[in-house]
């Protein structure tokens, strides 16, 4: 059976143990974290499509999202964190930092989890800001914490004006962090037009994985 369809069914049914066992069965020696997160993202996208076709309910989506979050946490702490605890030797004060935002009217909790864990796997500190936080408070936190990278996603076309507003506001910071823009719209539209030079447009988790690896190497 198609892995995405199988996981979709298990997620909707709230099958935590079976979902974890099935996900583990898909992981091989050369499977990367980007592969795993990509599979989970595709699964949730499929469940969203089922909801749009009235083949799944909103309750189904919430149940599936809870299972998916559990899979992400289990994978990171049991498969990644333990395997990399000796690899990351950077002192806390010298670790690069990433702050992940969720824009108004767009809640990307699962995507933020995946992204933060992917950065952490490469030795970064990560902080996540929910969509209800005002831009004023975001500015205050950013100026205090000084993240090297600020990342957020845009997935709904009518939120492009909000996306532009976020980018403009982040350009007003007293320093110039790299801004990463992700989300479904990056694959459907040329958003580079709206982005200043210090913005990186990322279309998928694999591209993000390569960007972090390249950033860590100093290339």
Mind sketching the topology for me?
Layout: H1 3-12, H2 16-26, H3 33-52, H4 58-84, E1 97-101, H5 109-121, E2 125-129, H6 135-145, E3 149-153, H7 160-170, E4 178-182, H8 185-188, E5 199-201, H9 205-217
Parallel strand pairs: 1-2, 1-3, 3-4, 4-5
Helix pairs in contact: 1-2, 1-3, 1-4, 2-4, 3-4, 3-5, 4-5
Care to describe what's here?
- The protein is of the alpha/beta class.
- The protein contains 9 helices and 5 strands.
- A 5-stranded parallel β-sheet has the order 2-1-3-4-5, with helices on both faces.
- 27% of the residues are buried.
- The model has no long low-confidence stretch (mean pLDDT 90).
Give me some keywords for this one.
5 strands, 219 residues
Kindly summarize this structure in a few lines:
The protein is of the alpha/beta class and 219 residues long.
- Can you give the helix content as a percent range? 40-55%
Pick out the low-confidence regions.
Answer: none
Q: Say how many strands there are.
A: 5
Structural class: alpha/beta
Q: What proportion strand?
A: 5-15%
> What is the CA-atom radius of gyration, in angstroms?
18 Å
Mean pLDDT, as a whole number? 90
User: Can you tell me the overall shape?
Assistant: globular
Give the number of helices. 9
Largest sheet: 5 strands, parallel
Instruction: State the distance separating the first and last CA atoms.
Output: 41 Å
Strand order of the largest sheet: 2-1-3-4-5
Give the helices and strands as they follow along the chain: HHHHEHEHEHEHEH
